[in-house]
Design brief:
Layout (H helix, E strand, L loop, with lengths): L5 E5 L2 E5 L7 H8 L18 E4 L2 E4 L12 E3 L1 H4 L3 H12 L9 H15 L5 H4 L10 H15 L4
Parallel strand pairs: 1-5
Antiparallel strand pairs: 1-2, 3-4, 3-5
Protein name: 2Fe-2S iron-sulfur cluster-binding protein
Pfam families: Fer2, Fer2_2
Organism: Roseibium salinum
């Protein structure tokens, strides 16, 4: 039996994907749409490397089943760094020396951008990043950089 394709918006463009058993949003982004900025980490939703913004909220793409994608609005790192908030977050991370290996940063930019867009200056950034791990140990620099973005932009982030 043929599975109907799913239609969603990714980075502002309407796309169609054909769901296959067991595939997640992460697999469709990387394999079907060629958006490799979203990283595969633990594949269990624990590390945050695959975090994207879906319908305005940060989600671990490895945990979003294809069935949940119909009419979803997804932003990946490729689009987020073009937005004022995403660009400010990325630039602050680089300026703070928080970009070591960089594997975690697309997910961190996505989680922070979603939190700042949602709450602005009221954002509890440690809580917003609680599902994002940095194996290089730069969490203090990451949080410092994001606090500077939050303080500089307030509710406009």
């Amino acid at each position: 039996m043929s599975v109907p394709p799913l239609s969603l918006t990714v980075n502002g463009a309407r796309v169609t994907v054909t769901p296959r058993a067991g595939l997640t949003l992460l697999a469709h982004l990387r394999n079907d749409l060629g958006l490799t900025g979203t990283k595969t980490g633990c594949a269990t939703g624990a590390c945050g490397a695959c975090t994207v913004v879906m319908n305005g909220a940060a989600v671990q793409a490895c945990q979003v089943p294809a069935a949940a994608l119909q009419n979803a609005d997804v932003q990946t790192i490729e689009e987020l760094v073009k937005t004022p908030a995403g660009r400010a977050v990325a630039e602050a991370l680089i300026a703070a020396g928080a970009a070591q290996c960089g594997y975690c940063l697309p997910g961190i930019v996505a989680a922070a951008s979603a939190a700042l867009a949602r709450d602005g200056a009221a954002t509890d950034l440690p809580a917003a990043l609680s599902r994002n791990l940095c194996r290089c140990g730069t969490h203090a620099r990451i949080l410092g950089a994001l606090e500077r973005v939050k303080n500089a932009s307030g509710a406009e982030a």
